[in-house]
Predict the 3D structure of the following.
Amino acid sequence: MAAPCYLGWDFSTQKKHLVHYVGSLPLKLKVIAVDEKLRVIHEDNVNFDKDLPEFGTQGGVSVHKDRLTVTSPVLMWVKALDLILEKMKSSGFNFSRVKALSGAGQQHGSVYWKQGANSVLQNLSPDLPLHQSLQSCFSVNNSPIWMDSSTTAECSSLEKAVGGAQRLADITGSRAYERFTGNQIAKIYSLNPEAYSQTERISLVSSFAASLFLGAYAPIDYSDGSGMNLLEIYEKAWSPACLDACAPGLGKKLGHPVPSHEILGSISPYYIQRFGFNPNCKVVAFTGDNPAILVMVAYISLGTSDTLFLWIKQPKPALEGHIFCSPIDTEAYMALLCYKNGSMMREKIRDEIASGSWEEFSKALVSTTVGNEGNVGFYFDVLEIIPNAEGIHRFNKHNERVTTFPKEVEIRALIEGQFMAKWIHAEKLGYKILPTTRILATGGASHNKAILQVLSDVFSAPVYTIDTANSACLGSAYRAIHGLVAETSVSLTDVVKLAPGPKLVATPTAGVAQVYQSLLKRYMDLEEQVLKRSK
Ligand code: 5FX
C-alpha cells in the first residue's frame, strides 16, 4: 500500500491576515496533502472569481447595495470542491493514500440546508458532480459571511434579551457582533421566515464543508461554534436563552456541538467511487480558520490589520475581543483580538516620515531607546476596534498632550504603542505571560527585525516567525493527524514536532522588563483619556 497522507482543506481567506473590515477576501478554496513526516506532497487551489465566473463574485463574495450585507453563493463553494477534486484527479493524485482529512472554514458564515438535504447527501450519485446533486438543497442560496455587518438591530436585541453585553460575553465569550452567526440567523428568521422554516439544518462554513465529505450533516465543533454568540463556552452546549432570542426551534436546526478533534466518521462512498478514496479515510471535525492555525502559545499576525491569538486557561470574557473554545484542548480557550490600524498605519507613517522606506523606518526605530524616554502615542487612522477611538494622540513624559514628535520618537511611539495596546488587552482577557510563552509573528511586518525586537521587549517573550501563507490548510492537515490519535491522549504539540519549526528572531533585551512595567500602566491610563475624548 502507498504511504499514507493527510489532507487539510481551507474554505477561508486567501491571506492569513484576518482583516475584518479591509482587504483580504476569501479568493480561493485550497488543499494541502502532507505525509507522515508532515512534508507537503501536494497543493492545489481553485480561484472563486476566475475559475467560477458564473457566480459573479469579487474576491469570492458579493457586497450588496446597502454595503453592509455581504454574502457568498453556497453553490460556488460546492462547485469549487468539484473543480479542485477533478484537478487533483487529473494530476494523478492518489486518493487511496489519504488516511484522514480535516479542514477550516471562514468563521461565522452560515449555510442553510433545506428539508430533505441530508438524505440527498447520503445518496450522492458518483456519476454526478456535487453541485448538480446538491443544487436544490439550500433554503438560502446566498450565505451570510464574516464580512457582513448588517445585523446591528439583532445584536442589540440579543444583548437585551440575555441581560446586557457583558452578560452575553460571560455566556458566549463575546458581546454581540454583527458577523456572529446567531445574529445572522435572527436576521434571516425575521426577513424570510419561510426560508427559515424550510431549513432542516444550519451549518457553519466549516461544518458545511465537513458535511460534503461525510455525506451527512456534520456537527459544529466547539471552537468555531464559539463564534456564533450562541454557545456557552464553559458548558460547551447551546445557550437556551441565546437560542430563544435569535429564532424559534434553533437548537434542533444546529445539532449537538462536538470537540474539535472528534472523528466524525468515514468518508462518504461518493468519494470512494468517484475518486478512489480509501473507505477507511476518516473525516475529522472541521473548524474555523483562526482556530485551525492556533498551534502555538501566542500568535500575532502583523498583516494589514493586526490580529492577536492567545492560548488561555482561565479566560475573562470582556466587552472587547473574543474568547473561543480552544480547537486543540477541550480544557483551554483561545482569545482573539483584532486591530484595524495595524500594518496600514505603520505604512502610512513610513510613507509620511521615512521616505516610504522600511530601512529608514527601522534605522530610526533602533536609534531610539526602549521606553521612548516616556513619550507615548496612539495612532488610529480609522476608528479602532479596541479601544473604540480615532485620531492621533501624543503625550510627553509628563502626560501632557503634544502635537508632534521628532521623526525617531514618532516611529518608536507608534510601534511601542501598538504592542503595548495588545499586551494590555490580552491581559484584560485573562492572558498571562509565562516563562514558556513564545510569540509567533506572521504577516507583512514579521520580516522586520527592528519591529519584532520591540514586540519581544514589550511582551518579555521570545519572538518566532513562520511562513503562514498556507497556515489554515496546514493546521487542518495536522488536525487530521491529531484527530486519529487524540483518543490515545497524544497532544497536537506532539503531532507538530516534525513540522518545520518556527525561526527564533528576537529575544527580550536584558533589563527592559522594568521599563515596560511602568510604561504599560501609564499607557493604560492614557488610553482611557483617549477613549473619553473620542466619545
Ligand atoms: C474572525 O472573527 C473573523 O471574522 C475572520 O478572521 C474570519 O474568520 C476570516 F475568515
Q: What stands out?
A: The first strand starts at residue 5 and ends at 11. The chain has two domains: 5-292, 295-467+502-535. The CA atoms of residues 110 and 187 lie 12 Å apart. The radius of gyration is 23 Å.
